[in-house]
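seq/struct pair 1
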Amino acid sequence: MNEQNPIPPVIPQTGTAPMPGEWRKPGDDASDRVPITHGFAALEALLRQPSRLFYQLRQPGAGGIVVQMLLIALGCSVIYGVVAGTFSGGPQLWAAPVKIAGGLMISAAICLPSLYIFTCLSGSRARLIEVCGLLAGLLMLMTILLIGFAPVAWIFSQSTESVVWMGILHFVFWFVATLFGVRFLKQGFSHTDAKSQAGVNVWIIIFLLVAVQMTTALRPILGKSDTFLPTKKEFFLEHWDDCLKEVGSKPAANPSN
């Protein structure tokens, strides 16, 4: 400080809290370090404070959190399956929940090894349990959003008899829910010191393809059938094309009926 410059120099401070908008790691905020003791706390953290969930997945005992997250995702998918089953009623009231919940969990189990491999190839330091936690968070967020869409799906299921249009509606709901789930996964992946997002981007495509093919392998989920599982093997694009052709071949309904 001198006569020309009476303002003293600014001394940098250490240990200060991150400013708003500044990149912060899970655990920088004291609230991130509050333990998650049950599934509903994990759900609240997922919706309100994902960084808390990311931090807790790195701590000892993370396996219990992952199990509870999977149980919530399983329960929500069963509830949504019951709503989907009300379109046809009868056996679909139990078959649709089994197929939706089972298909989702099987798809996740099939894709877990490739997710862990891509995580390692990306230079990430995430442990297997942390990768499982991110995948469980994706499933839980997906199914919670589907529960939010369930009343809308039920209204339409009572208003139309078109399996194709109901299938399109459920696909739109599933796709929107998956987008939010994938965003959570990528957000968590960015905190694992990965050098590249290329691996997780490739995995997302694989997961989408597996999940969509699973709906075809477990058909019908909405319509009625004499068998629990289909007797014919089809690729999902082929199945969709057959459904559209079937709709196009039906005569137009008489408005007076």
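seq/struct pair 2
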Amino acid sequence: MSTIEKTYTINASPEEVFEALVNPDLIQIWSGDETKMDAVVGAEFSLWSGQMFGKNLEVEKNKKLVQEWCYEQWSEPSKVTITIKPKSKTSIVTLLHENVPEKSLNSISDGWDNYYFGAIQEMLEKVKK
């Protein structure tokens, strides 16, 4: 099992970034697919029509989101920790994704960049224009 660590600078406030992570209507916009999400500890979620699913382990509004992530082809869940910190007019988002199966490492890493935080950044920048 491997760990993915990444840092993103997103041109939005921590409040806007957090909402993009937990608001199902916003997630549907940036993901382009069905989603189920609630910003409470213990809530189960699903993304991309259920391909990725899990539950919230820790929710600290506008600051931190810790989730158990599952994929039907994985033998055990992984753990995702997202931390959001303000920096001037942007947010610094750190990602720690633990217990990622080796066979999925590259695709999951690319997915964070292109389909998750890249898509969130794109959506939030459109809102600002």
